[in-house]
Amino acid sequence: MRTLKDMTVVITGASAGIGAELARQLSAKGARLALTARRRDRLDALNAQLGGRHVVIVADVSRQEDCQRLVDESFAALGRIDTLVCNAGIGLYPPVHETTPAEVRELFATNVFGTTDCIYAAVPRMLQQPVRDRWRGKVMIVSSAAARRGVPYLGVYSATKAAQLSVAEAMRVELRPQRMAVTSVHPIMTKTEFGEAAEARGRIKLPRGNDAMTQTVEHVARRMVASIERPRAEVWPSRITGVGLSLATLLPSIADRLLTKYRDDVESANKVAAGPAQD
Asked: Residue 212 — very low, low, confident or very high, per pLDDT cuts 50/70/90?
């Protein structure tokens, strides 16, 4: 079991949502954090809420040079990185064929390259660290339940999450002999501002109101903290979703039929949002 007190943790996308809640829970257990995101005001407010004892680094992970800088500044301030949490991400909800090339590249730049660029900058240096609590360090990649199965109107977003999962799966085996742990995290829809931000940037609004398919950030962060303490391959905050999506890979035609209802719900909700057609 890894000790959280004085553990050094870098969290990208720490200004809101899962990243901010993870920071709160880790700080309460005595971890030392580097909080990084694009919005300094949000990061400063969070750090003040946590007693002002953490490192704030403004960075945009879609920029390779920012990934390198945030890693350099984290090492300079903390001395080592025990856990790198690649959490920063953006969403957009058009159908795949209506997603512009620029939008596809924007999603991949943040969600995929923002992950791999941070890994490239951090992991070689983490591998030089002395072992602590049986591990040199840990990489935690916040993917999505959609990594296991592409979802209508989240096709390109799902692709970025699947790419993150593939990276995690390969790294987990590559790095284990060096005592580096790798975990992927797969939330379902979570109560954050993420969805609202994605909808504000796009043309589709997703239906809301099904609490059975929505989780709180507190729940997701608790599961992540538990896996930081006791490294495991994957974290599925909704265990039944993990099982169901694993079966969906074996029965794709059945999964298609089940997701048809979701597609219909999205289309119905957006027809209502748009109002009646005009002559």
From this structure: low
